[in-house]
Hints:
heterodimer, A: alpha/beta, 10 helices, 41% helix, B: alpha/beta, Rossmann fold, 2 domains, five-stranded mixed β-sheet
Amino acid sequence: MTTKELKERSIIYRKKILQYIMKANAGHTGGSLSCTDILNVLYNEVLNVSPQNFSSNDRDRYIQSKGHCVEALFVVLADKGFFPEEDLNTLCQYKSHYIGHPTKKVKGVEQNTGALGHGLPIAVGTALAAKMDKKSFRVFTLMGDGELPEGSNWEAALSAAHYKLDNLCAIIDKNSLQITAATADVMNTDPLDQKFRSFGWAVKEINGNDVDALKDAFAGLPFEKGKPSVIIAHTVKGKGVSFMENQLKWHHGVPDKNQYETAQNELDKALSEI
Amino acid sequence: MAEQINTHTYKPNLEIFSETLQRLALTDRNIVAVTSDSRGSGKLVPFGKKFPEQMVEVGIAEQNLVGVAAGLASCGKKVFAVSPACFLTARALEQIKNDVAYSDNRVNIIGISAGVSYGALGSTHHSLHDYAALRAINNIMVVAPADNFETEQAIELAAKADQPVYLRFGKKPMPPLKEINNDGFAFGKGRVILEGSDVAIIATGETVYPALQAAGKLKQQGITATVISMHTIKPLDTALLRSVAEKCKAVITVEEHSVYGGLGEACASYLLQNRITKPFRIIGIPDEYTITGSQQNIFDHYGINEKGIAEVALSLLK
């Protein structure tokens, strides 16, 4: 895809994320909007995964550790043809498989997530299996910066470097806000690059809302042979909607009718200006 | 009879686990053992030497142990995640619940040195909560083999199970228990070790043998006991439970676990909800600061032995 096409796609995804959060009257709005560009570039440019090859053992694996931002994942999976988009009208409804966190009941989802600090250990095991079987598929996991204090992440980070898993890429959606306050104030994890380097990872820091920067970063994988890679993606929580950007209350805020219309109008305007 | 069995000629179930896993790995390169600095205590040093490509060490990091195991299983590996039961089912409980059971990654969670096997090391090293915790989690079987035969069978079946399995055993040599009907071994199907009509003693894991000893003692007083090895605590063999409870005048359960939430309460729940009310007692570890000592000291202290079980039977039959 061209840069223009990718940018358009990101805005269309953001519009749909808001549409289905509005319909469900629930969702993690801010974080879904911060990681939209990451998912867009992954599914449209990077991952060797499709509805057709999803049962193949050779597909790339994407594990969403920050499971609460499932609305972004569902919108992208629907766009890639894993299921009809109208299914998302049942989001969070009684008996729907489309619940507030990823589950394997939905085609395209690799692992049931939602509890934080689980994605990276599973991704390490998956990448190890690829190495054992000499398979060339790659493993990606998207983590939030707010989930990094979970100790399991650091257990997994050690083992990824120990086993030289250069087929593994972790992306940190560093939007710098979490439910209580700024991540740096809740539990400071900076300097993240140094932490991961000292754990034996190869690190790249980029603007995680810039599709070109994301494309370039993924194209450079692995950043070093014999090391797992981490992309520290600096993003804006609530990205794309002016009154949601960097505002704590949109962590899982749902817009009212007026806010929703304002947001959609802003996104339409941005789309027309690309 | 039970008292003639010399326990020194039999192996710990732990060793049988290791031997069975090595035998399976010889012909199946998808068998993988994952350890958390536990290959020595899991008797897996020979496995690691013979099959270095099929062993993953994660260091002392149980949460990562289970997460990594889930990832491996998702790619078709037949994974045995091996660590002391006390750490595995407490520290990594959320990983067992979400990454294994909820995500249906078919990992075999192997809890070694379970119950009070690490007797004198204290409560940090005891697992008296694991049946209770795992029974309340959907999509995982809970199994405690009693002897070498059950252990070998359980490991073989776990390697091809279509559901995650939690298996736990201790490290003391376990004498063989001969089944009456020779029906073989299947998860969810208890084994009848002895048949009698006065009292049903339903035991699991390493407490089946003392239950059998108690039955021998009762026989000297003219009381006949049915002894069941209820190796699978979940799913419970309710058909067998019903039949022995209906046949006998009293029911006793025995387990190396808290009296809360384990085999005993599982049986009580089924019996009461199905209107089968007989004099009933749960023998296990009471809800208190656990006494210190060897595994046998602790068993003796809480009456998980020939004398204690027989006394409970006599009191129920009064």
